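Thread: thymidine-5'-diphosphate complex, take 2
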Amino acid sequence: MRGKFLTFEGADGVGKSTQIQMLADYLKSLNIKTKITREPGGDVVGEKIRALLKSCASLDGICELLLLFAARRSHYVDLIEPLLREGYWVISDRFYDSSLVYQGLLKNVSIETIMQLKQITIGDFEPDLTFVLDLDISSSTQRIANRSLQFDAYDEYDRMDAEEQRVIREGFRRLVDIFSWRMVLINAAGSREKVLSRIVSKLSRLSE
Ligand code: TYD
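Output below.
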């Protein structure tokens, strides 16, 4: 049986990677074959493009978009689609919704251009379910600050000011309204266990 494709979206610092790992452990405990991946990245080409993007802080929006969709197509063709055919549930840390928000809203690339590239590169393929983790900006900023202290990381590419963070948060919230057939908004505040239980409670939508 074909697997399911689940994606996680949201601003930086909302706790995606923790929840993805916890959800994967939960699915494995149900004997569901599960693989975690991420964008940009996931396969060999995608990871090379990720490194390229991360080393170029001030790329023009269209250049960035073309690189992201090249990475996305490679990720889809080489990794996601074969795993789904083998029956795996694939969980991706970000997918094309991130392009709609980051390149569309922050870098002013038109939504039409983004959807055209989406159609060219992955056609009608869509996630079966997308979790948008939503957290107030002061909490996500605090989590990023803690992470930076922990890993001594200063990542120019991921650095956003308060206004940009507001645009990102609002952008994802709007997407949930537009793509309500496949997207759910998850309150990312509270303990990790509480957030996971909110996510797990939405899995029933997969069989609707
Ligand atoms: P993320 O994996 O959340 O960052 P990290 O693991 O380094 O903390 O995402 C990397 C960055 O890439 C993030 O700032 C959002 C950005 N991004 C886009 O701008 N467009 C996209 O289509 C994707 C997938 C990511």
